[in-house]
UniProtKB/TrEMBL annotation:
Protein's name in the database: Uncharacterized protein
Molecular function as annotated in GO: methyltransferase activity; nucleic acid binding
Domain of life: Eukaryota
One Gene Ontology biological process: methylation
SUPFAM superfamilies cross-referenced by the UniProt entry: S-adenosyl-L-methionine-dependent methyltransferases
Length: 173
């Protein structure tokens, strides 16, 4: 490989690392799980961004507490509000920390993550004996970019869930 190509590749990798990972959740990713969240449950969306998840569940009549780092609430360290189930699409670079914290809080959760999280070394070790169940939407999730356009996502995503009644260990939509 020429040194020019090497420099080009390094620059592409570096700029990708610096790009903020802010991709919002489209309705399609929520419609497939809506029926697994019974009416009356109080939802905590702890990385709410522009409120795509919170808005979806509010429309369905849920009481939703929506917080975000941007509004002063760091999910990894904050005192949690009263809630019945935690539902979020966290920044993927913090997927390990979000999973660990959500599980430690001891209540049901649904985290939207790349399916390849299953392949991560940390996940293989951490998930042993934890009853984390994987809900796989039928299609790839095309996340919403900050400019409002849909991304053409190349990877599959899944809901990593715990203690949500009716979801199998590996659950295909
Ligand atoms: C990928 S966006 C998703 C937003 C929203 N959950 C959705 O699905 O549309 C991730 C969000 O996590 C927030 N965030 C990043 N680190 C956080 C943290 N430590 N605690 C809480 N929110 C965080 C960002 O500000 C951003 O709004």
């Amino acid at each position: 490989m020429s040194s020019f190509n090497k420099i080009l590749i390094r620059e592409v990798i570096e700029s990708a690392k610096e790009r903020p990972q802010i991709y919002y959740t489209p309705r399609a990713a929520l419609e497939c799980i809506g029926s697994w969240v019974p009416a009356g449950l109080r939802i905590w969306e702890p990385a709410c961004g522009q409120g795509h998840i919170a808005g979806f569940f509010k429309e369905r009549g849920h009481d939703v507490v929506a917080t975000d780092l941007d509004t002063g609430s760091d999910f990894l360290t904050c005192v949690p509000p009263e809630y019945d189930i935690l539902i979020t699409n966290p920044p993927f670079k913090l997927r390990k920390q979000f999973l660990q914290r959500a599980h430690k809080l001891g209540r049901p959760y649904m985290l939207l993550l790349p399916l390849n999280t299953l392949d991560r070394v940390f996940y293989r070790e951490w998930a042993k004996g934890k009853d984390v169940r994987i809900f796989c939407p039928r299609k790839k999730i095309d996340y919403i970019r900050p400019d409002g356009k849909k991304s053409n996502c190349l990877f599959y995503s899944a809901w990593f869930t715990h203690d949500v009644a009716g979801i199998d260990m590996l659950h295909f939509e």
